[in-house]
């Protein structure tokens, strides 16, 4: 097949790393720390079943009809109210319901990016975010992450030197893969930069409700006085991902343009999923679920940290995340994560190599991402004991 | 807001016509022939409710979890079998499940189109198809439609003159808005051209099962020996649209690339919708539904033709479609459809102006699209009697 026949974006779209590790997720014979998916055992299925039946009785046939492109009014009402709880005051016209927050990223990239435009991202950062940006042939500018999140000083230096960016994409709370959180001081600093250098901040918040110790820091959107923040929300990690419902909150004019983009992309999000989440929100089921999952995942986080301390050599390092699903572990000098993965799979343990998350492919060589979300406590212990041995014998 | 800040595709994405007529659909005080949506009164809601409860019992928590990007295996199995009934032999790797077939169009445009590439479309043709192509800044080449569908002779002439196209997008059965069907002779001719001039044919089939008189003609895909046809399917018009589940069937390598594109776009389609349709297919509910809707919509088509004959002036013309949802009506010379619409809305009847569907905006001035799908028989009669009066008094 002549690949010249396809759009030039193709060479930027393919991610062999991602496809490879996705294929590891479903295998029963492997303890996999690879996926970043929630543990389905905690989904409130009994409540969902009751709610679906109730909805079919109330809404009848319309539950299976098209809904409008911008999204169901009652779901937007719930979100307006939900955002109030985060000190964010918006109206329904500032919200667009999307097919998962991955679609939010795709639509933003579609709206903003010409080939060659620059986008700043966390380094390491979310693979799917980088994938969406790559699909529109933008130039990716990776900004290092440390214990306090994105290194705003590095970003500032680049901007001062004359770099122009369309937007910065980041996950400020319990980021994927680093697990790190952007400090409050840096949040304020970042907003100032966005104003001074005229770029948007795309604040992606999938793990925000998965705060295991303290309340999350104020959202960038809540302390933004200049309409520079576009906020992406997802129900996937703290409620359920199967319905593919997410949302974007931003300046009204941008939401209007994104709605047009969505119309050409998939017409509308699925109706039953929107109604179900709206009702679950109104009836307090989502809030109940958030209360339940925090201690549930915290236990797993604690177990993973115990295992790392117990089984991994001392020269490995990590910082305990305050929430989310991931540990970002630095390997002993000289061990390359890709080689380690091959050895680990032979011993029936899997993880994701650090490379996948870094703008410069080689930068992540010495790191691995371990997710604790979808394993039992004993699997976490067993998997880490095996992986510790593999590292020690490497 | 500085519009130069956005991607250059923005100026191609906006479609005021479409937004305007979408806003007419929901109004209760208007008899609207504008929408092309199915009549929800015919959805098999009782069966769907039973099936959802059964599925939750069988599948449990996994029904609310992410599914893989390519789609649920059992839905693909159903489709392989369904396609066999159309003399199309494919395997599961040749199918990608999409978020409605609109996403199929978006992904194909994403995969194939660089700005300036040429795509041939029906003129008049489906607005959403044109929208998807416009979003990737391709050049649209409208090819006239007559009583036997797309004018293959015009396409051939352009190709002979040296036009190069990446693909042709068309709805060969009961097209939107023309209602016309591509003749068998033209189908064979088109496949020959695709081979000789090396382009793909995107065969979109939303109305194919809505054949009210005779069996539909062989699908282009079923008589294609050279892997030139990419087939788009949708459950929206003959089963239900609310879950946003569609599918693409094409050469394995292309399906693989489209799957990568989908991963960056929305990760996966919703799980419950996929499972529900797969089970409904396996248990014969979809087939039952198809049997039920044919006479149901045919009645409406007949009513609309009666009304047109009875109330419209003789100088209006149309050809009765053999299936689908639409009449494409030529107005008396000198009446512009946009002016007529204003007058019609004052009298509480709506339709879509012909312009919206034509590559050259002015070409559709003299036409209107009337949909009979979502009105009762008496609404069809009443609406057409009003519209007839408006035209007569124009």
TrEMBL record, chains A, B:
Keywords: Aminotransferase, Pyridoxal phosphate, Transferase. The keyword Ribonucleoprotein does not apply. InterPro entries: Aminotransferase_I/II_large (IPR004839), Class-I_PLP-dep_aminotransf (IPR050859), PyrdxlP-dep_Trfase (IPR015424), PyrdxlP-dep_Trfase_major (IPR015421), PyrdxlP-dep_Trfase_small (IPR015422). One of its GO terms (molecular function) is pyridoxal phosphate binding. GO terms for biological process: alpha-amino acid metabolic process. Its cofactor is pyridoxal 5'-phosphate. Residues 33-385 form the Aminotransferase class I/classII large domain. It comes from the Bacteria. The keyword Cytoplasm does not apply. Homodimer. Belongs to the class-I pyridoxal-phosphate-dependent aminotransferase family. This is Putative transcriptional regulator, GntR family. It comes from Halothermothrix orenii (strain H 168 / OCM 544 / DSM 9562).
